[in-house]
Design brief:
The protein is about 0% helix and about 35% strand. It is an all-beta fold. The strands form three sheets. The chain has an eight-stranded mixed barrel.
Length: about 230
């Protein structure tokens, strides 16, 4: 099987350079294929992600630009930059010089809106571990908060984390449309083989919107209960 919900971290060259390219799959769903090496052929019917307790879906919210992704279980709080396609149809990636940085595909779904939103980050850079270094250790039930420009927080709950070989990447399943608000977090994974073009797999976290709420107050004393 090319998908695994649990795996041992493979040995890899310390902090190799990441593949800095992505492609667009010309499929009916306009499924996005992130990171060079993902295949173009897709199964006719996408499977449902496996494992993990199902989260109760929340009602999708209005569009608002995402500005930061927080993954409390990994200690991640990374600014989000816009990612777009270049003239060759390749999706850009966050600047590898910035280790704590993630990006979202701005021409796709906004996190919290109906459909499947895409957020990507490096697993490591030439100088050390990057924002999604621990994505493969995330477990179902973990929370992912996307802070948005309208000062709301779209809270997602992870229901599966899987690794896919790039030679058998299920793009329709990962990027296909959804009636509710979904989120996919992606990074590189698997063995690192410079001769074969770098990392040989992708790690994907599948998450579903569970709530949209205002951020916790940062005003001192505002949420502190008073004595009666």
């Amino acid at each position: 099987m090319s998908a695994r919900t649990q795996r041992e971290r493979p040995s890899r060259r310390p902090f190799p350079r990441l593949i800095a390219a992505a492609g667009l799959v010309p499929a009916a769903a306009a499924a996005l294929v992130l990171l060079l090496g993902s295949p173009l052929a897709e199964p006719r019917t996408p499977d449902a992600p496996r494992s993990g307790a199902a989260a109760s879906p929340a009602k999708p919210t209005a569009t608002a630009r995402p500005v930061r992704v927080d993954i409390p279980g990994l200690g991640v709080s990374a600014p989000l930059v816009d990612l777009t396609l270049d003239s060759r149809g390749k999706l850009g990636v966050p600047d590898p010089a910035e280790r704590n940085l993630a990006g979202w595909y701005r021409d796709g779904v906004t996190p919290g809106s109906p459909g499947t939103a895409i957020v990507v980050a490096h697993v490591d850079t030439p100088t050390g571990p990057a924002a999604f270094a621990g994505l493969d250790t995330l477990r179902p039930g973990a929370t992912v908060d996307v802070r948005r420009a309208d000062r709301t927080v779209a809270a997602f709950r992870v229901y599966a984390v899987e690794e896919f070989e790039k030679s058998d990447f299920p793009s329709t399943r990962v990027y296909g449309p959804s009636e509710d608000a979904q989120l996919r977090l992606l990074t590189c994974g698997g063995a690192y083989d410079p001769a074969a073009g770098g990392y040989q797999s992708n790690v994907v976290a599948f998450a579903r919107l569970v709530s949209v709420h205002p951020p916790e107050s940062t005003v001192p004393g505002e949420n502190v209960p008073h004595d009666s």
